[in-house]
Amino acid sequence: MSELASGSGPLFTDPDPEAARAFFRGKKGAFQDKVMSVKEAVESFVQDGDYVASGGFGANRISTSCMHEMVRQRKQNLGFAGHTTTHDFQILSAGNRNGEKLLGRVDAAYIVGLEARGLSAQARKVMQSGDVEVCEWSNFALACRFRAAAAGLPFVPMRSMLGTDTFRHSAAKEIECPFTGLKLLAIPALYPDVSFIHVHESDRFGNSRIKGITVADVDLARASRRLVITAERLVNTDEIRSDSDATTIPSFCVDAVCEVPNGSYPGNMPGEYFSDEAHLRQWLDVERDEEAYGAFLERFVFGVEDFEGYLEQCGGADRIKELRAIELMSDDRN
Amino acid sequence: MPDYNSMELMICVASRLLDNGARVGVGTGAPCATAMLAQNLHAPDLLVAFEAGGLAPLMPEMPISVGDSRTFHHALMTTSMGDIMETCQRGMMDYAFLGGAQIDCYGNLNSTVIGDYDHPSVRFPGSGGANDFASFCWHTLVITQHDPRRFVERLDFVTTPGYLTGPGAREAAGLPEGTGPHKVITDLAVMGYHPETKRMQVESLHPGVTFSQIDEQTGFDLPAAEEMSQTDPPTSEELQMLRETVDPHGIIIGRE
Question: A329 to chain B: which residues are within 8 Å by CB?
Fold first, then answer.
């Protein structure tokens, strides 16, 4: 297969499946109890300089607690997969202030925006500063990168991005198909050092259930060297075994299990609670005033012990009850 | 004649382009509202697909995110981004329907940066699923405001492919054959593309809009199609459905 053209963007991670196999060979513990706090999981599994990825879809089924914890622990110079990352990216961009640099390099498919809600002033400032290395992709390309890694391959072929600047600023390569002669893009495997996926239910080993859309998380879970699961609820392994069809992520892919009820807040969690649009609006608005933003982060992130403390600041159980009514479209919703 | 704002006009007009039985991949923002409006009026069998994995939902109100739970409310299936995009890649999606971005005369879109790429004056989100949808789906529809900042001679960055540099350019780049831009719906007019030159042209002017207005608001040469018509204004039925059912909180149409 001959290479026809190359994107000029940086490849932040090694796509070599042999290196990944050597790592995964030593990853065992399907029947090991991995329950720990979010603080402990982030301390144990995220080193400065690591490449991290966030599951879900921006402000839907995200592991908010882990994003806050990385900011609180002032992790530095992380790589990040921006596969429709909206509020999760916005949280992490709070780590790039006052000379600190949490985000060091970003694979960008969708960053700095919160869809119909608008753009994050802080995330834009970080990405316009010139301090963060960036490589362009489409959402499907990043999904393909996780797919290639999950399959233990160095790349998969794909037919979008061709002919555009998105390709020219990516790290993909044009190749000729050995069967048809078609021009294809070779999309390199992405094996993140550590990923965070929020799920509905997990047992203590990490066997996990996601309800509703899975986005790219089935592949992301398998592609990641280390995987932190945060779960709305812990369930018994007997319960997992009673309905194995429902298992989305098997425990031998998992390194930590954290029980975090309401853990996607202020994002949406399907069947549990809707997004808190008022809080997300407040976050977007406050970013425009540096002083107010600093005070906001102190109140909601740095000044609280953990995610539970953050939830209390946001209205706690009463607010979650309201968001649950919106999600379920009950009659008493506001 | 009923009163309406420019966003309501765009959504009502665009919804008529989604025929019953069609399969459409829907982007974030106005396209969500448009697809839902069509589904609630003339196109109950419109098959709506969302990039995050929602397939054929019965939306109770328009989604705020193309991955929120409204995108798979009473859906036929909940699946993954890979499955939805592969469905498009194998030719099973008629329309890509994308929202606001910079656009040029060949329907190429910029949603990545304004200014020099290495030192951008403005960073936008990037492709998201737009490049994939517009590469794979048979026809691409774009809904956006009509002004000279958006309708430009030269894009700072080609995020998402239209006809690229003109006839034959998509195929030469390796994109699937027979795909490409189809219509652009703005607050002033509906545009299509010349069958030979692949350049954008005006097919229908909205009520009260003159051709010189189009000229003033467009940064490239935008001619009239051979047969140019007048857009029918939104009906009271369309407006009522849009305001009361599709977007009751005014997320997109900007009214409470």
Answer: 60
List of chain B residues whose C-beta atoms are within 8 Å of the C-beta of residue A84? 51-52, 67, 128-129
User: Strand (E) positions, A130-218?
Assistant: 133-136, 155-158, 173-176, 183-188, 194-202, 208-209
Maximum Cα–Cα distance for chain B, whole Å?
A: 50
Half-sphere exposure of A281 (CA within 13 A, CB side): 6
Residue in B164, B185, B184, B183 with CA at minimum distance from that of residue B175: B164
Q: What is the mean pLDDT of residues B91-116?
A: 96
Query: Annotated catalytic sites of B, by residue?
Result: 51
Q: How many beta-carbon pairs under 8 angstroms link A with B?
A: 197
- Domain map of chain A by residue range? 15-75+190-328
Banded pLDDT at A1 (limits 50, 70, 90):
low
Are the beta carbons of A166 and B112 separated by less than 8 Å?
Answer: yes
Out of A110, A117, A182, whose CB is closest to B64? A117
Please list the residues that pair with A231 across neighbouring strands.
Answer: A199, A259
The chain A residue lying nearest B69, using CA atoms, is A270
Do the Cβ atoms of B80 and A165 come within 8 Å?
no
Asked if the ipTM is above 0.85, the reply is yes
| B128 Cα to chain A: minimum distance (Å) | 5
Q: Name the residue among A116, A215, A274 with its Cβ closest to that of B252.
A: A116
Asked if the Cβ–Cβ distance from B122 to A136 is below 8 Å, we say: no
How many angstroms separate the CA of residue B236 from the nearest CA in chain A?
A: 25
Distance from CA of A1 to the nearest CA of B (A): 16
Fold for the domain defined by B6-246: Glutaconate Coenzyme A-transferase (3.40.1080)
DSSP codes of every residue in A211-224: -S--BTHHHHHHH-
Mean pLDDT over B125-141 rounds to: 98
For B76-103, the pLDDT digits (tens) are: 999 999 999 999 999 999 999 999 789 9
Listed by start position, the domains of chain B span: 6-246
CA dist B31 and B15 (Å) reads: 9
CATH of A15-75+190-328, one of 3.90.180.10, 3.40.1080.10, 3.90.79.10, 3.40.50.1820: 3.40.1080.10
| Lookup result for tokens 């005369």 | B105
- 8 Å CB contact between B70 and B63: yes
3-state SS class at B116: strand
- pTM for the full model? 0.97
Q: Which tokens go with A161? A: 């991005």
